[in-house]
Amino acid sequence: MFKHISYLSFTFSVIAAMTTLSACMTTVPVPREKNNAVIYNPTKSPFIPEFTVFDNNDEESVLSIKIRRDQLFFNEANAAGVPMASLNISVFLYNKNLNGLVCDSARYDFDIKKENALPEFVCRVALKLFRGASYYAVVKITDKIKQTHSTSYLDIKKDNEFGSNNFRIYNHFSKKEVFTRVLHPDEYINIHYPNKSFDTLFLFYYKPVTNISPAPSVLLPETTTSEKPEKMFILPFNDTLPVMFPKPGIYLFSIDSTKRQGITLFNFGDEYPGMSKASTMIPPLEYIATTEEMDSLRNAENQKVALDNFWLKHAGNIDKAKELIRIYYFRVQYANLYFSSYKAGWLTDRGMIYMLYGPPDILNKSIDTEKWGYKLPAVKSKWGERYTIDNQYIWFIFTRKDNIFTENDYSLNRSQTPVSRWDEAVASWRRGKVFRLDNPKEYQ
């Protein structure tokens, strides 16, 4: 048995009523076959939190959770009669090395006055994570006023002193902790390694991956990075050294020149995660455009006009074109937010499916696996005077892969995707209609 230790840190004042739960190797497995489709549906999930994990020592790590102020809902229906948000944050930690048994948990309740609110709210939770083990954390954030919630799933690997969780990243000017690992070209940061002193930092640079994922019916591996870095730099290290990334690519920082282990930072372009320039809006069309159309778009003298003409041609009129553009690039943006790994999210297998099919109707998530289901038109059969409805789905199964750069790398199991109706999805978009499996008559 161990004692659960927890603490909180805030970027603005809160009135907190806090309850902490603890568990030690109970027999509760990671939930399976539960529909978690809401986690990839921004219209149904009120929060898009960000996370970092830092290893305090061999037995304890700190999970930090950041929520933006504009995601909080403030209401005056409370005893104080002042605008206030009310949250519950629950964390469940599962040990992969012990068959997914829950090994720690915590629960916190917060009442947050609007007048005290700054742009960010940060909660820090100390958890028992032991060196050499791999974990799976489930974080549920509930808006207690609106009775809505979002659930996030984190893979955490606590391997050795070289791993990413031994580093912390801070903004060079504001000195605030940076939660995202995707940085913009003009963003300056400081890299901290609090648990050990050293004077040299090694930077391995890898070229960005820009190839799209192959269609589900194509049994080809997706393009990955080369094991050999493009360049290596030796930097004199101190935690006030300003670092920035003007060039798109993958930047792996390590304290040992012989190891490809450390913290990885990414530059996916100056518009990530969204896009508004024609030059960045054209590449995602490769999923639905022909080779000739892509060549024409890339080589156009005026790419903005060429892009507008592409959508107008397939939509048929300006209003439909505007709606298609809104939906398509909305999905590109959220694919980047949800699925970015060693490459931008829209380039990944999950991003590809998300963009053309939309958020899944069913998402069964377990350790290292996601199973997405898209509903087909209901089949109605009659027996006597009674009707029965048979709901059927097309399934896509994604498996997490070990990757030196990220814990968010999932690959589509194409051999287990016998039917995808990919050609039908592409044809629908090219006819100017958002593809929906459960209502095909509209698109015939």
Structure description:
A five-stranded antiparallel β-sheet has the order 1-5-4-7-8, with no helix packed on it. The protein has helices spanning 278-281, 291-299, 303-315, 318-339, 349-357, 422-430, and strands spanning 15-19, 50-55, 61-68, 84-95, 101-113, 120-127, 133-143, 148-158, 168-171, 189-192, 200-206, 231-236, 249-254, 263-267, 362-366, 369-375, 379-383, 386-390, 393-400, 410-412. The model is unreliable at 1-32 (pLDDT under 50). The chain starts with 14 loop residues before the first strand and ends in a 14-residue tail after the last helix. Strand 4 (84-95) and strand 5 form a beta hairpin. It is globular, with a radius of gyration of 23 Å. The chain is built from six helices and 20 strands. With 444 residues, the chain is α+β, with helices and mostly antiparallel strands. Helices cover 15% and strands 31% of the residues. The chain has three domains: 1-159, Immunoglobulin-like; 161-270, Immunoglobulin-like (Sandwich), CATH 2.60.40; 278-443, no CATH class.
